[in-house]
Amino acid sequence: MLTRKSILRLFTVANESPRLNIIGSQITAAPLDALINVILGWSRERKSKVVCVANTHMLVEAYQKPSFCEVLQNADVVTPDGMLLALMLKLIGVKSQDSVAGLDLMYTLCQKASEENISVFFLGSISAILQNMRIRLEKEFPDLVIAAMEPLHFQPLTPEEDQALIQRINASEAGLVMIALGCPKQEYWMAAHKNQIEAVMIGLGGAFPVYAGLHRRAPRWIRQIGLEWFFRLIQEPKRLWERYATTLI
Q: CA separation (Å) from 111 to 45, 115, 174?
């Protein structure tokens, strides 16, 4: 049985955490605070790392697509996003496992980064959402160093455009790159740019529009009983019904 204390010891001594198999993908077993400390440590040294925030949909995608499964296998951290995955980790041996959602990860990292003068590069989504995020970030974390905020169009970049983007990110000296391109595009993007981007890359998907106020986050009690997916479905039925119909079951 993996306890919170033993997991924290692994992170402190070996800078790694147990990864347990859920339908073919290796999920990082660690509490939010331990993950935050490790990610911040990497970001101070501007190490090229990949952090995937895995919900049920992502794991089913990986189960069905070997190429995507390989992306998750090669990620440095794969967090359990949602009470269902946290419960599954508990059932297979992790005594205390909380859900590590993208919004919680983003919020806490921004808070800590503002305290430690670690700059953050926000990539993806659209200009209007990024602008709303900037307004809220500047209000909640006035000391946060925002290296840049760049939307990213849906068409693939040319090799020249991609190289220019890499150079802009690295020149900004950001320690954290928060990415919102949607699953699985953002995970493929991070995997393709490992060892090129000199920062910790974190795929945050739907966290950007929620933080920007475009969508509401489910109340804590709904999240705790594992029905956050239903709350999201009510807000975005057109986009999400097919996804949930094919992956949640």
A: 18, 7, 15
DSSP 3-33: -HHHHHHHHHHHS---EEEETTEEEE---HH
SS3 of 32-85: HHHHHHHHHHHHHCCCCEEEEEECHHHHHHHHHCHHHHHHHHHCCEEEECCHHH
Contact indicator for 167, 148 with CB cutoff of 8 Å:
no
Q: Going residue by residue through the chain, which has 249 residues, state the pLDDT in tens, using 9 for 90 and above.
A: 555 555 555 554 445 567 889 989 999 988 889 899 999 999 999 999 999 999 888 999 999 999 999 999 999 999 999 888 888 888 887 877 888 889 999 999 999 999 999 999 999 999 999 999 999 999 999 999 999 999 987 678 999 999 999 999 999 999 999 999 988 999 999 999 999 999 999 999 889 999 998 766 555 645 555 556 555 556 566 655 566 566 666
Angle in degrees, 0-180, between the axes of helices 56-64 and 66-74, rounded to the nearest 10: 120
CA distance between the termini of the chain: 28
Instruction: Count Cα neighbours of 13 within 13 Å in the Cβ-side half-sphere.
Output: 7
Eight-state DSSP code of residue 178: E
- The total number of residues shown for the chain amounts to 249
- CA distances, 27 to each of 19, 88, 102, 214, 221 (Å): 5, 10, 15, 29, 24
Closest CA to 80 of 64, 92, 68, 65: 92
φ, ψ (nearest 5 deg) of residue 63: -65, -35
pTM: 0.85
